[in-house]
Amino acid sequence: MSTEQQDQEQGREQERPGGAGEFAPLVEEVRKFATALGGKAVEFGGRLRESNPEVYGHLAAAGGELLAAYRAAVAGHERSWSAPQHAETERVDLDGAAEAPDK
């Protein structure tokens, strides 16, 4: 691929909705890694389910609890992040400043 073609591809990537722009190569590597890891997890989970169904059940329940805890934590933070922030205020008495004695 020529430099011009690479530049055009990079430009198209930046124009795409949700495109990663300069991080596109990193994003693609993360996607590949997640796909490979997910495939291995499914393979391992299948073997575990067949050989130790009780252990698999406990791990599945624990995973569900962890996911619920994560969602609750994220929801709480999202509410605080999206709540309107009130800046702290300080009352300044402009009328009294003119009457203050000189030091």
What is the gist of this entry?
With 103 residues, this protein is an all-alpha fold. It contains 4 helices and no strands.
Give a written overview of the molecule.
With 103 residues, the protein is mainly α. 75% of the residues lie in helices and 0% in strands. It has helices at residues 3-15, 24-51, 53-82, 94-99.
Estimate percent helicity. over 70%
- Low-confidence residue ranges: none
* Termini Cα gap: 77 Å
- What is the helix/strand order? HHHH
The shape, in one word, is flat
Question: What's the topology here?
Answer:
Layout (H helix, E strand, L loop, with lengths): L2 H13 L8 H28 L1 H30 L11 H6 L4
Helix pairs in contact: 2-3
Name the descriptors.
103 residues; mainly alpha; 0% strand
